[in-house]
Amino acid sequence: MKRYKQSLTIITLLSLTIILGCTKQDPTYEPTEQQATDYTPLTNKGQAHQSEADEAKQLLSRYDEVSEVHAINNDKTLIVAIKIEQGDRFSLDHLEKEFQEKLQHSFPHLKTAVSTDQKMLFELKELENKLANDTLSNKTLNKHMKKIKKLMKEET
Amino acid sequence: MTNKKKKLNPKAQHYQAIQKKNETKRPIFTNCLKAFFVGGFVCFIGQLISTFYIYFFDFTEQTAGNPTVATLIIITMFLTGFGVYDHIGQFAGAGTAVPVTGFANAVISSAIEHRTEGYILGVGTNMLKLAGPVIVYGVFSAFIIALIKTIFSQFLGS
Amino acid sequence: MIFFWAFVIGGIICVIGQLMFDIFKLSPAHTLTTLVVSGAILDGLGLYEPLINFAGAGATVPITSFGNSLVHGAIQEAEAHGLIGVITGIFEVTSAGISAAIIFGVIASFIFKPKG
Question: Any CB–CB contact under 8 A between C26 and chain B?
Answer without folding.
Answer: no
